[in-house]
Amino acid sequence: MTTSAYTQSSQAARARARKRLGRLLTYVILGLITLLVMAPVVWLLITSLKRDVEYLSYPITFLPAVPQWNNYLQVFDPRYHFLEHAWMTAFLAVTYSTLCVLSSALSGFAFARFPDVKASNKLFGIVVAMIIIPTIVTVIPQFMILSKLRLTGTYWPWVLWGLSGSPFHIFLFRQFFLSFPKELEDAAEVDGCSPFGIFWRIFLPNAQPVIATSFILNFVWVWGDWFTPMIYLKADNTTLAVLINTVFRNPAGNLITTLTVAGTVVYILPMVVVFFLGQRYILQGVVTSGLAGR
Predict the structure, then answer these.
(1) Taking the model in full, what pTM does it have?
(2) Which CA distances in Å does 180 have to 169, 183, 185, 205, 288?
(3) In this predicted structure, what is the pLDDT of residue 102?
């Protein structure tokens, strides 16, 4: 073997070794990050299987002496009204998500396909600017308006918010609809289709990735929101997020932590299921909407 060939062989071996080392470090870092992310979830699951005495004991015990699977059965005890509020929350989340998807899609269609309308670009600029406005800034004005209209304590605020659409989702639909060829509209207009008919029959049926993305994100927001229902709703019609924080108490009025944690596990399961069922649509919708444009 010549000197140059030997040198090239040793350099290739070192390159392979560096590549393997880099891959190993990557896996180690990803593993550590996974452990950090999963640690609270594992602790939540373990705590839900403890007795309240074990949870409050010191020193802390990691595993329960006897897993209390009965904690999950107690969550559904009729006196806690868990299932009733779960159905209320699901109804509210589905209603809001459906209305928000439809109104955002219609607004996104208008911004995408009628850019020549006077002030269209300026209005869309305002919509995009609203994305960066913190929600907390609008809480007090919205509450004052809805309170004067006597809509607090009802689900009407979510209906109105759904009908008004979401700036972020309007942006998603607008970017997606920009990728549609103009020939589709021209052919539909020749057949006598109105602008709304073009939206309803052509654009909306072909926007499944963005529809799924928008619906799932809206559903998860309503299901997981604690702050808004705490302000607007009463104890008898509030959402599951608020109920879990207050309902699981012993006769003395003290919070039963392990039941609260078990209820939290049951509470987050629908969000996990919805996300895993729709993650393909979420990725496809966000990527497509982010890349489409003129």
Answers:
(1) 0.81
(2) 18, 9, 9, 12, 12
(3) 94
